[in-house]
Every structure is written in structure tokens, then in C-alpha cells.
């Protein structure tokens, strides 16, 4: 049984002449123990979808069900208020109540559920210890670091064992170094406690690291969903391919097609490529930066370009090749060592050179 | 693990507290206004049995030459006041906020003093300091041989009114100037503009919406001016609408409520559109001055030798608006008698204060004033908070209705509001009586015996006065509280809802604790405003409901200058204590 089911959800902001359609028919489900990431650019509707599930936004049409309980039904005009949905929500800004101690922040949910004082104390101390906050119970939020505040926010959402925990950009408020540690910590915690989680993020690396399944949203609709590996290695649309990794866009012309094989003309060279997606009127050619192989000698399925510059990134060099004959071809590729000036052959493997 | 469920069914329930608050607020706001309108269309006071609907009241006042003179004077006063207050207020705001004038920290609170001093007290202060036998007049006469000013001329009244309304303009101009980056002014300086030119060509034009808003505000405040004209206009017979209304009783010798209502309706017809205009301007002003974000830093502009001119300007304003009247009152209350040829050292005394101690009515008045400020202020803040919470984060029709309703009392001057509440407490019991007499059942009889006498007796209790005060200052109090409520981030309330708190629990456990200090600051501000009040209590004055402001009005009419001076001094002291507490605890005197 699904812990969370969303069916054909529509949501607008505003009304009349200024109406803004945010969600245009989104359907998804979440199973027990699964971590699903809602990924997408700004304005794609991912935070709105999360808040609609939590009950903080009112959709126009569609259904939302938690377990077998319906919480929103557009046909019957039924909407369960947020306070009755029993979900855990971790805000991007953590939203810890500044006038309550850490203990009171976490205990508030249990107090509302009319538990006895001793039971509350046990449960709260238990969850705080679980998250490494055992000694911080009497502190106030402003006395904690960013990472500690985040863990208090998570503790507050977990303490009453909700079936699903919702996280709104949980790592965006942390600095870069902390983000890498928190990424691992979050995934380990969710798996260890056997939680089902729905997470919103705009960072694809974070989404791929933490989640079991990714839903890519574009302009209020789900563009593609799947495991991180399938989303990265087999994207079905140009948008998905461009969002999920670093790409080179090539101004190639399609000269022939046969099934999945495509023949391209690029800067005087002929290349073999693979067709992906539904195809469109204006085919776009891309290849991931890390798939480009640099060679000093001619190789097949390659183009020759002069080196413009090499940028040092610490673990590798990123080299930029740009055409000088006016054909506007520029390619980035990775190299372990710094390259001498000159022309190089860039091998573009046929199965990694995608035409959408 | 088993999910812990929150108790409750989740069905939508009617928000009873909100409904009660909205109903009570709407009744308190609109019932008096409706009564005024109703009374103006009757040809006799509403408690007379032989009354009928008609336009006689309007006919009378339109034919009365005094009415048209009063109306024209009111217009002239409002216009003159605006012309004086707006430029001065803008310039002072520029000097305080955008320049490096030394002593800004000290001068800024002083600039706000006239807001907290009762205009009645100010008027009296001017008479005592600069009148024909005023302290300063006689000293200047000694020096020059004549008195170069006439405090009772209409021009003087307009000038004084303009100067005392400068703080209102200052408040809005200064908050608009605070949000300007200093780069535009620096660009002007680099091009070669002096500070004066920068002020007139760059800074003030950039805050035009705020100045327009402030201009409309002081214009309709000018229309409502009462105490100043009552004191200064009498000797030469200058009337404005508010004093004309006050003197209508003397005109006919009987309570001519219908005539007063007609004048009131005329006043409200002018002020109401102005209030709506002002609100519309505020909305567009907010859209304009949004130079937010990581904008340019604000660096104060160096004045150089213009400093002295600025000091002179500020000193002259402080002198005329604050120092002279207040020092006049101070001296007069400690002086046995005063006139030409009297030496100050001979006549210092505490006699007037002893007289006050001996008169129970006056002592009651002082006590009532303190009580209504402290306890009444607290109750008022609680009511304002309830109304603000009824509008908080609920953007629906009811909120819009409350938004506009809250502005309505603003258009009604204090004098009228007091009068209308008097009528409410006279009218409602007798109307209820009439209705209940027709009914025969037990409930009607019980109400007849208990509720009606209770309502009747309420009129002469301090409750009626408190209600009138709270309604008159509704918009001011709401502004204070909604500023505090805006500081609470919405996610804090949403987090509480996500964890399972109902709306009432969110308000109790999250919103109200977080605005605790804002509410305390609001209490202090409301205390100050209630202390300064004078016109609202005039018609509700009866044994038991005396407050200092209303007592001043009636004592002035009987000519007891000594008592007026001493009472004014006490009033100023109360306000000074309140201001001192506010400054000590860093309560912002402006928003």
C-alpha cells in the first residue's frame, strides 16, 4: 500500500485575470520506506506540491491520500486542515520557535496529542539522543549552530512517528562543507528509522545522493521519474538531460536517421549519435562533459578543435575547446593533466552523444 | 512504529471567537455613526416624543452665516497648516536622517513631543507664555517697548497649528528617507550641489508619495482641530467647524442635538473621503519606496557650514513649539498671579496644587486619567490585539471589511465621537425599552428590569469614556499591533500547524508569545495617547467620569486660569513619565 498518493493535482495562485497555474496535473505515489526527491528549477512547483501535501496550500482539483485516508478531494470539495494530517514537515528555514527551548520545541507536538508529562520526557529525550542532541535540551534555538538547528527541526518532525516526513530543501541553509556531511547523515537516519520521506531540492547531486527515486518537475508537470541512475544515464527529454548533469551543447545538423541511429554533420565531420526521447522539430545534440575523450591523435567519431584554456578544479582540469572558423562550436572536457596549446581530437562516443 | 494521532475530528467548525470579535468591533464603530446620521435627519433631539424626519436641521445650519464662516475658516486652517507643516516636516526629517547634524540623538525624541501633549494644554501654554500678558510677551515688551505678535489673530492660530503638526509629517518623511540609499545624494554632491540643493532637488522629491500621504493626513487633522481654536480663537471670535459645533448649545440654549448632528455629518463628509484617499496613497507609497535588498549603504551627508543654519531652524521650531508654551505653563502653575509689573520672585507658590488637592472632582479627574491610561490602555490593547488577530493571515472578505471599518473612526474627531457615544448610551436603552414594552414574555420583562437600568447607568461610568477612547484611537492602536504581528514569520505558525496545533492553539502558543514585547510597547503608546486626550471626554463629562482633558475644557470656560495651569502641569508630568519609561526601555516612538 502506498503511504502517500497524489492524483492529477492542479493548483493556482491568484484568481481572475492574474491567475498563475502552478501545478498542472501532477500524479505521484510514495511507498513505505522509500525516499523520493522532488527535483526541479525555481518555479517548477516542487515546494508548492510539498506544501499542498502538508495542507498549507489549497489545490484546485485532484486528490491527495495519506495511507488509505483521503486528505484532499477536489470532486467532493473536501480538504483536511494541516493540523489533522499527522505529517512531519521540516522547513527550509527550520522555523524553530525562538521563545521555546529545544526540548519544548520537540515536545510541543506530543503535548498537543495529550500525552503524559513522563511519556513526553521519555520520547523527546529518546529522539534527541538519536540525533546527537541529547545535551542541548535546555538551549534556545539562537544558541545553536545551523547544523544543530536542522537536527532539532528533524527531531520535531519525527517525535510523533508520522507515516511520511516532508523535507523542504533540507540542506540549502548549510554551508558547502557541512552539506556533504549532512547529506550522508540524512540518508543514514532515514534508512535506519525506516521512514518514508518526500524531499524537495533544486540540487541534483543532493537528490541523487539521498533518494531512491527522483521526480523531475518542469513548469508544474512531472517531466520524468525514476531511480537516480536511470535519470542520469537514460534521460528521456532534453530538459531532463540538461538538468541532471553538466553538458556540452553542439550545433550539429541531422543528416540521416535509421531507428535509434542518427548521423550528424558537425564542423565538417560526420558523427554517429543515438536518438533519445520523443524527438522534435528542432533536434538538439548534447554530450556529458565527462564523456568527452581528449586525444592528441585522430580517432573515429571525433571533431578537431583548438584548445582555448585549461581551468584547474583541484581534482582535475576542465579544458575549453573553441572553434575559430566561425562555426561556433565550444566543448568542455575533463583532463587529468594540463594540456599544451594546439589542436586536439575530441572523441564523442556514439552511445553517449544524444540527439533529442 | 505506531503513529501518534492528534485528537480532533478535522471537520470545519465555525470560528466563534472571530465572529464575536468582528461583530463587537463593527457595532462599536458603526452604531455611533449611524446614530449621528439618524439624528441629523430628525427635527428634534431623538429623545423628544414629537420628532419627525426632515431636513430642518440642515436648513438651519446652511442658513446660519456663522456656519459658512466656520467652514471657510476650517478650510483655511487646514490648508495653511498643511502648507506650513509639510515642508518643515520634510526638511527636519532630512536633517535628522540624512545629515550628520550633531546632537541628532537628543533632538529626535524632542521633535515628537507635540504629538503627546494635549492641544488644549498647548493652547493654554501659548496664552500664558505669549498672550497679551504672557511671560515672554512682557519680557519682550520690556526689551522692545511693544509686543511684535498677536497670539489671538487667525494667522497666529494657523501658524501655531502648522508648527504643532510638524511631528506627524516628520514621522512619515523620516521612515521614507530611512530606506533611501545614499548613492543618489552622493551623486548630486559630486555634481556640485550644496546640501540645501540636494534636499530640495533629490531627497524630498524621492519621498513624494510619503509626503503626499502626510499632507492628506495633516489636512484632515487640521479640519478636526478643536482645543487650540477653542482657547486661542475665542477672544477675537474665530470659529472653526469643531468649535461651532461645541457652541451650538449656547446658541439656542437647549440641547440642539439635531443641529449638532447636521454639523457632524458635514464634517464627516469632508474627512471620510480624505481618510480613504490617505489609505490609497499609503498603498501606492509602499509600492514606490521599495529600494530593498542589498542596496547602497546609507552614509550621512556632511553639512559643513550649513550646520549653523540647520541648528537655527531647529532651535526656532523647538522654541516656538515646545519651549515657550511648556515653560509658560510651568511658570504659571507655580505663580500666584501674573500681570504687567509683577516680579517673578515675589509670587512663586504651591497654592494652586493645594487647591487641587482640596477639590474631590479634580482629584477624581487625575485618578481617572491615570486609571484610564494604565488599565484602560491595557484593555484597549487587548481589544486591538483581538481585532488584529481576527485579520491576521486570513485574507478574506471579513478582513477587508475590518480593514476599512478600522479607518472610519479616524474621520470622526474626538469631540464628535464622545458626543455620539453619549447618544448611544441615551438612545439604546430607551429604544430597547420601547421595543420590550411591546413584548409580554418573561425574557422581555427580565431584560426590562435588569439590562436597561444597567445600560442607562453605564453612561455615567468610566466604561463609556473608555469605550469612546478605544474607538477613536482604533486605527492608531491597530497600526501599532499589526506592525508587531508582521514580525512573526509565517513559517513559525505553519510549523505549529504541521505539528498538529489548531488555529487557536497556534495563536495562543506561538503568535502571542512572540509579540509580547510589541504588545507592551503598544500599551505604553496607548497610555500616552489616552493621557493627551481631551475632546472625547467633553460630552461624557459627569460626576465620576472626569478626566484631566475634559476638566481643562470646562475649567477654561469658567476662567479659572490657576487651576487650568496646575492641572496642565500635572498632565504634562504624566506624559513625561510615560515618555521617560518609553525611552528607557527603547520603545520605538514611531514605526
How would you summarize the topology of this molecule?
The complex is a heterodimer of chains A (356) and B (591).
Chain A: E1 2-13, E2 20-31, E3 35-39, H1 46-54, E4 61-66, E5 69-73, E6 78-79, E7 88-90, H2 102-112, H3 117-130, H4 146-158, E8 164-168, H5 176-192, E9 196-201, H6 204-210, E10 213-218, E11 221-226, H7 228-233, H8 238-244, E12 247-250, E13 253-258, E14 261-266, E15 269-275, E16 285-288, E17 293-295, E18 302-312, E19 317-322, E20 330-335, E21 343-347, E22 354-355
Parallel strand pairs in A: 3-9, 3-10, 7-8, 8-9, 15-22
Antiparallel strand pairs in A: 1-2, 1-4, 4-5, 5-6, 10-11, 12-16, 13-14, 14-15, 16-22, 17-21, 18-19, 18-21, 19-20
Chain B: H1 16-40, H2 56-63, H3 65-98, H4 104-111, H5 113-116, H6 119-130, H7 135-144, H8 154-164, H9 166-178, H10 183-191, H11 195-206, H12 208-223, H13 227-233, H14 241-252, H15 257-288, H16 306-333, H17 351-358, H18 360-391, H19 397-405, H20 414-438, H21 442-458, H22 462-472, H23 474-486, H24 490-499, H25 503-514, H26 516-532, H27 548-558, H28 561-584
Helix pairs in contact in B: 1-15, 1-18, 1-20, 2-15, 3-8, 3-9, 3-12, 3-14, 6-13, 6-16, 9-12, 10-11, 12-15, 14-15, 16-28, 17-28, 18-22, 18-23, 18-26, 20-21, 20-22, 23-26, 24-25, 26-28, 27-28
Instruction: Characterize the main sheet of chain B.
Output: none
Structural class of chain A: alpha+beta
Principal-axis shape of chain A equals: globular
Radius of gyration based on Cα positions of chain A: 25 Å
Order of helices and strands of chain A: EEEHEEEEHHHEHEHEEHHEEEEEEEEEEE
Specify the structural class of chain B: mainly alpha
Query: Separation of termini of chain B?
Result: 51 Å
Low-confidence region ranges of chain A:
none
The helix content of chain B, as a percent range, equals over 70%
Helix/strand order of chain B? HHHHHHHHHHHHHHHHHHHHHHHHHHHH
